[in-house]
């Protein structure tokens, strides 16, 4: 069931009357990744596209199934196009396909495709226009008054439409594998770290507000549940949960998002989890527990162990229990054991808790009220557990289990008729979340004092602004309804699929030829100069990937982000210094990482960018409250800085993951951002420098036409591509055309204001200049590169190309073109890609050469002779040995983007 129609996107395309296809006016040359077909394209005439597993090879298991996105050239395919998928062995694979993005002419730009883990897998597949094979047992969805039932052909899952239980039951045939699936949470009124004499606790359980079927097969079904955590006194912690089920599969993928809406001074969350009841069958010695450790490690135990006893029940009995099979009839055992079974302890409770990134522990106990016994431990668990018997059981797991610590897998009551299996996304064994601001303000009560503080620590502090109210976190989980206790080999395959869900992907060459995401091209090592730049890009990326582990940038609220700036004296990142700590997308780190993936197709690059998008799209922005749609500037805490900005919540950083995976949660976030301009009614970004009180006028808001508008426009562009709200497209076109109509367009000074209702800018008729170095380094260059592909407006094109040409031009050239020079601008290396864009649009070889000079000079970045090397620092100079490199994240992100785009645009002038 697809809710975005072709009709809506075509209506949207007509709304502002400015969406004809870009003419041949330099388009093919300017956009290496957007080459147009020679002559009119025939709809449905595209050649097959090869897709392969991101990590390579053929995965042993999938996390239920997999869904991925593929781009298509403009004019190639109609929205109603069906697709076939054929394995490299020539076998037709059932596939469900739907469009997720459109070109302005209504042809398909992006499609999503889903296959089930139950179907045969191969190393590569051919995706082509054509009829899709149908699954032998299509997934079906039926709705009654109280429940929604999804049948995959292997299991039947009933979802409640109200109450506490999100999942009423999971069945295989007549066997109930699990039931009563609900969310649980708890809070305490004081922090765990201050030794309060009395701490009051409260428990909460999920309460459903709304259930929606978003897709109903034939390969993939999606059920969305929204609600809050509730007890008899309070409802809070809103959640959005999606369940994904695939034809023929016995697995359920779950994507869980919660939003923090508490008071950080008194609401300390000390437990957050998902719990199922699991009926237990058979004798305790035929009930099994499994946990996945690191590598291929598996802990295999029984609730009542019969190995290692003083009396031996027999080799066949022992071997069956260890293998997870039903033991032989007790009449065949050594009767010295069977007559004394009641004296063997039954261990009904188990816990695997990963409270930090460097170690987990497993404990067990007989039952509540008795001591825990240590079982074993290790470094990093893969995050999968199992409880059940040879007649069936539940495997339950969490992705990024150790990276998102403190986490826990818990089994209780396995010696009784009903066990409980819980995935703790925040383990009760850890201290409670403490989301309070980290200092008392240090007397910064006035704007002048706060500006002085900014001068020394780079932190933009303001009382009351360091609030976590409205931030979110998304976690991915998988549950398997297994017909029997899995073998150790299958269990480890399930654990691998849980930890790194296999994903299909089209390659860099196809994605580039489709013309998506602007100016980039696949890796090119065709000469020595290009090879040196490719080496630099590879070194930078590898260094940051390794830094995550080297610096242990892990944890529930932190995983996915990197640090902003380095302290060479302490040999550490400036984690504790104001605005120099967590990066929070400053200067488009996310963009750099995604473009690195696009051009390399590297699995590590994808996973790194994916983790950052999950983080920055949830933790670093507000999803409810008066600042909804705004992000928080870089700082010691992700929500701590008082600068709340759309340049941080920027949709341009998230749309890659959406289109490459069709992830619905990312789609939700992108949709949230189309109204982010409304936040300018409640918060003046320039309040600390303003001379008059802030009295917002919806028709004349002080919204920046570059950094602010660029971030908003990326949300509107994405909404237009997706065929959503027509107002987004109208605002996009109105904004770009009215900015271009200003005397000096994006560089225009004076009182330029924004109309919230129409998206139009109004400014003085006389030319003046007001431009900052940050204006285009939060996605504006990338936005305009894509937007000029889509609209045919000569004034917009000319003004943008002129802006790109002039930023790094001489003062004389700037004065001649705009009436005054642009001052001493910063980040000139970053803007070399703007020069390169102008060079291609104007077919100017001198500009192309200038772009390379600007890149090599390295102003506010990395000059040509910068050492892309690392040095080993050992103790006692540091706590742990580290590899240290002369890199800053601002410079790395912008250097990376500049090199990537210069190579794509003017690579033949290097």
From TrEMBL:
Domain PcRGLX/YetA-like C-terminal alpha/alpha toroid: 501-909
Domain of life of the native organism: Bacteria
Claim: Aminoacyl-tRNA synthetase is one of the keywords in the record: no
PcRGLX/YetA-like central beta-sandwich domain ranges (all copies): 139-495
Residue ranges occupied by any PcRGLX/YetA-like N-terminal RIFT barrel domain in the UniProt entry: 48-129
Keywords attached to this entry: Signal
Pfam families: PcRGLX_1st, PcRGLX_2nd, PcRGLX_3rd
Signal peptide range: 1-29
Record has Signal as a keyword: yes
InterPro entries: PcRGLX/YetA-like, PcRGLX/YetA_2nd, PcRGLX/YetA_3rd, PcRGLX_1st, TAT_signal
Record protein name field: Tat pathway signal sequence domain protein
């Amino acid at each position: 069931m697809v809710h975005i129609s072709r009709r809506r996107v075509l209506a949207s395309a007509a709304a502002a009357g400015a969406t004809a296809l870009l003419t041949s006016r330099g388009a093919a040359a300017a956009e290496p990744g957007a080459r147009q077909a020679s002559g009119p394209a025939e709809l449905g005439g595209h050649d097959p596209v090869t897709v392969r597993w991101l990590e390579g090879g053929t995965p042993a298991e999938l996390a239920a199934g997999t869904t991925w996105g593929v781009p298509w050239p403009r004019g190639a395919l109609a929205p109603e196009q069906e697709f076939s998928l054929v394995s490299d062995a020539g076998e037709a694979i059932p596939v469900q396909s739907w469009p997720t993005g459109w070109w302005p002419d209504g042809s398909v730009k992006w499609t999503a495709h889903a296959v089930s883990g139950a179907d045969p897998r191969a190393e590569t597949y051919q995706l082509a226009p054509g009829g899709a094979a149908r699954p032998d047992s299509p997934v079906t969805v039926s709705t009654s008054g109280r429940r929604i039932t999804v049948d995959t052909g292997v299991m039947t899952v009933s979802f409640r439409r109200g109450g506490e239980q999100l999942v009423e039951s999971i069945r295989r045939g007549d066997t109930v594998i699990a039931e009563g699936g609900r969310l649980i949470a708890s809070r305490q009124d004081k922090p765990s770290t201050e030794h309060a004499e009395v701490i009051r606790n409260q428990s909460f359980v999920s309460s459903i507000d709304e259930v929606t079927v978003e897709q109903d097969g034939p390969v993939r079904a999606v059920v969305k549940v929204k609600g809050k955590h509730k007890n008899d006194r309070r409802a809070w912690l809103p959640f959005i949960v999606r369940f994904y089920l695939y034809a023929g599969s016995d697995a359920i993928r779950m994507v869980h998002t919660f939003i923090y809406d508490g008071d950080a001074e008194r609401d300390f969350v000390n437990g957050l989890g998902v719990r199922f009841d699991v009926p237990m069958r058979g004798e305790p010695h035929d009930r099994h527990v499994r946990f996945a450790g690191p590598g291929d490690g598996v802990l295999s135990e029984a609730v009542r162990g019969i190995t290692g006893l003083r009396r031996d029940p027999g080799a066949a009995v022992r071997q069956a229990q260890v293998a997870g099979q039903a033991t032989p009839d007790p009449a065949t055992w050594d009767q010295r054991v069977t007559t004394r079974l009641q004296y063997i302890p039954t261990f009904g409770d188990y816990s695997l808790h990963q409270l930090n990134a460097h170690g987990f522990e497993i404990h067990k106990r007989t039952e509540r009220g008795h001591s825990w016994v240590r079982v074993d431990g290790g470094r990093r668990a893969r995050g999968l557990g199992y409880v059940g018997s040879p007649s069936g059981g539940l495997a339950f797991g969490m992705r990024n289990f150790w990276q998102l610590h403190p986490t826990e897998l818990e089994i209780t009551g396995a010696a009784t008729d009903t066990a409980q299996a819980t995935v703790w996304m925040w383990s009760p064994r850890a201290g409670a979340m403490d989301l309070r601001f980290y200092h008392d303000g240090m007397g910064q009560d006035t704007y002048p004092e706060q500006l002085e503080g900014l001068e020394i620590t780079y932190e933009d502090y303001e009382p009351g602004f360091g609030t976590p109210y409205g931030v979110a976190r998304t976690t991915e989980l998988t549950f398997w309804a297994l017909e029997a206790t899995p073998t150790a080999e299958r269990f480890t395959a399930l654990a691998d699929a849980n930890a790194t869900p296999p994903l299909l992907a089209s390659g860099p060459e196809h994605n580039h030829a489709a013309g998506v995401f602007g100016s980039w091209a696949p890796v090119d090592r065709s000469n020595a100069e290009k090879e040196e730049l490719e080496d630099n890009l590879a070194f930078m990326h590898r260094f940051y990937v390794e830094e995550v582990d080297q610096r242990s940038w892990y944890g529930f609220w932190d995983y996915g982000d990197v640090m902003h700036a380095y302290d060479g004296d302490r040999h550490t990142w400036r984690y504790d210094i104001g605005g120099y700590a967590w990066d929070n997308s400053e200067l488009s780190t996310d963009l750099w990482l995604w473009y690195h993936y696009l051009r390399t197709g590297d699995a590590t690059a994808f996973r790194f960018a994916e983790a950052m998008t999950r983080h920055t799209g949830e933790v670093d922005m507000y999803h409810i409250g008066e600042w909804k749609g705004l992000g928080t500037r870089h700082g010691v805490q992700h929500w701590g800085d008082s600068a709340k900005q759309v340049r941080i919540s920027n949709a341009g950083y998230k749309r890659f993951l959406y289109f490459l995976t069709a992830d619905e949660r990312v789609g939700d976030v992108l949709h949230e951002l189309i109204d982010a301009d409304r936040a300018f009614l409640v918060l003046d970004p320039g309040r600390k420098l303003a001379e008059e009180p802030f009295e917002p006028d919806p028709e004349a808001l002080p919204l920046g036409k570059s950094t602010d508008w660029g971030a908003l426009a990326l949300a509107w562009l994405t909404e237009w591509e997706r065929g959503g709200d027509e107002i987004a497209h109208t605002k996009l076109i109105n904004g770009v055309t009215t900015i271009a109509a200003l005397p000096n367009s994006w560089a225009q000074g004076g009182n330029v204001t924004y109309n919230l209702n129409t998206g139009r800018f109004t400014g003085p008729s006389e030319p003046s200049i007001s431009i900052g170095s940050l204006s285009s380094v939060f996605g504006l260059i990338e936005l305009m590169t894509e937007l000029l592909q889509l609209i045919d407006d000569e004034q917009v094109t000319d003004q943008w190309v002129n802006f790109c040409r002039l930023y790094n031009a001489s003062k004389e050239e700037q004065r001649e073109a705009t009436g005054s020079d642009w001052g001493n601008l910063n980040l000139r290396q970053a803007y070399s890609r703007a020069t390169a864009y102008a060079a291609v649009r104007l077919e100017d070889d001198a500009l192309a050469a200038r772009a390379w000079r600007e890149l090599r000079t390295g102003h506010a970045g990395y000059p040509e002779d910068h050492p892309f090397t690392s040095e080993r620092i050992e103790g006692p100079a540091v706590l742990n040995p580290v590899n240290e490199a002369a890199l800053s994240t601002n410079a790395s992100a912008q250097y990376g983007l500049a090199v990537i785009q210069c190579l794509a645009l003017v690579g033949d002038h290097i």
